[in-house]
């Protein structure tokens, strides 16, 4: 299984009144990880959107294990947890500077026509991307 790794320096603005990373910022970091994975596999969300195709989140699951704080370095590991040619489930594990798990999660996505929001067959529209996902999840 291919795992993308992306480091993110925790900025002060990402923390809450308790001095820890605000919970919603982990979702942004998951997106950063997902985008990095897609780019490393040779593809781009931006190119997909130029085709009029969007990839909304249809489900998200996040488990907060250990807090990250300002000045820490978060390392986002992202992989393809499950893929069937229509829906993709990305897996995430975010580590703190000490290499300890801070967050675990998944996000599920489908592709839709940008105008009608009707689901489309990802594997048919993007056969090379489909092949890359099949290979990356092994």
TrEMBL record:
Residue intervals passing through the bilayer: none
InterPro entries attached to this UniProt entry: 4-hydroxybenzoyl-CoA_TE (IPR050563), HotDog_dom_sf (IPR029069), YbgC/YbaW (IPR006684)
Gene3D superfamilies linked: Hotdog Thioesterase
Keywords: Hydrolase
One protein family per Pfam: 4HBT_2
Lineage top rank: taxon: Bacteria
Keyword Cell membrane among record annotations: no
Family membership noted in the UniProt record: Belongs to the 4-hydroxybenzoyl-CoA thioesterase family.
Protein name in the entry: Thioesterase domain-containing protein
Source species of the chain: Bacillus haynesii
């Amino acid at each position: 299984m291919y795992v993308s790794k992306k480091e993110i320096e925790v900025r002060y603005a990402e923390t809450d009144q308790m001095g820890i990373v605000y919970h919603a910022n982990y979702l942004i970091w998951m997106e950063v990880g997902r985008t990095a994975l897609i780019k490393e596999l040779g593809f781009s969300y931006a190119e997909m959107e130029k085709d009029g195709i969007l990839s909304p989140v249809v489900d998200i699951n996040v488990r907060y294990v250990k807090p990250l704080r300002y000045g820490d370095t978060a390392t986002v590991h992202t992989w393809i947890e499950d893929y069937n040619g229509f829906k993709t489930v990305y897996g995430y594990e975010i580590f703190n500077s000490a290499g300890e798990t801070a967050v675990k999660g998944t996000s599920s996505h489908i592709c839709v026509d940008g105008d009608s929001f009707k689901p489309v067959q990802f594997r048919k529209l993007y056969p090379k991307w489909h092949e890359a996902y099949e290979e990356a999840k092994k």
